[in-house]
Amino acid sequence: MQAYFSRQILLNEIGHIGQDKIANANVLIIGLGGLGAHIAQLLIRAGLVKLALIDYDVVTATNLNRQLLYSKSDLGKYKVQVAKEHLGNIYEDENQIEALVQKITKYNVRDIIAPYDYIVDATDNYETRYLINDACVSENKPWISSSIQAWNAQIAFYNLLESKGNTHTYRCVFPEQPELQFHENCDTVGALGASCSIVSSIVANELLLEITNKTNLRVQFLNLDLLNLSIHKFLVKRVLPQNLETYVIEVGNLWSLNHNERELGISSAELNEYILFDLDDLAIDVTYYLEEFTPMDNEIYVFTCAGGKRSRIIAKRIKTKFPVAAIFYLQG
């Protein structure tokens, strides 16, 4: 099968070793619209074998001028099913393509992303993007996001794995979700098909570079003005603590585990922002925090539950394993 990829194997940055890395990577693309559909095709043509696609929309007439996988005969069909068929025909079913007709929610996002090495966000709404970010941080998954509104596009990698801690997350760049009335996408401001192809090509290029070596966007955020053909790269740093969710806690209700069995009260004035894990949330995997969870330096973690007992047990066990970590629980 490597005969198909002889031209890219000639590149020093890829070679046979890099091509094997591409073939062995497992990628999930969320959203099969103007960006995701083209990214999928580029990755398959580059030699990616295992690819999962998730979207719950059907092909409509307005899709055809910028979503290159689809044609008029596909109208009314689910995008992921059409994409799976077309992508499978490129190398005559030598690929393992999974099609999921499903919507990302806070209840399923962690389970959906868990099996994959890289997550590609090609969605067109902020709500889903924040869900993807928080799940990727929780599951320790790197992901690349792209968006386009009219002539402006943005591309960035998030949560790339590093020996000294992961790189920045989406919330480092956009701490809070914009209000709905400020949300713009192709449906409200439009987009040119050629512009979508440019953005998709950069995303696929950077993902393939990360799989084989190292992306150019490890600590950078890329902004493109495709009307005036200008490109700006901004340096992004991880902001601590990460606010997966921010809560206000009354003074005296927050308790710390810093001195063996001794419990110390901490006021909300001392601890305004932190990562909170509600153990009553069905999306929280308690076993993960007992067996695999590793706290980050300079992060503040708070565990809570309805009665306070389980959160205290979890917090104490984690604190025993990581004595210097900032681990807290809420008293019930």
Keywords:
globular, 332 residues, 31% helix, Rossmann fold, 13 strands, single chain, eight-stranded mixed beta sheet, alpha/beta, five-stranded mixed beta sheet, 2 domains
Question: What is shown here, in short?
Answer:
The protein has 332 residues and is α/β, with parallel strands linked by helices. It is built from eleven helices and 13 strands.
Oligomer: single chain
| CATH homologous group name of the largest domain | NAD(P)-binding Rossmann-like Domain
User: Could you estimate the helical fraction of the residues in percent?
Assistant: 25-40%
Strand order of the largest sheet: 3-2-1-4-5-6-7-8
Give the SSE order as H and E letters.
Answer: HHEHEHEHEHEEHHHEEEEEHEHE
CATH topology of the largest domain: Rossmann fold
Strand content: 15-25%
Q: On the 0-100 scale, what is the average pLDDT?
A: 81
Rg is 22 Å
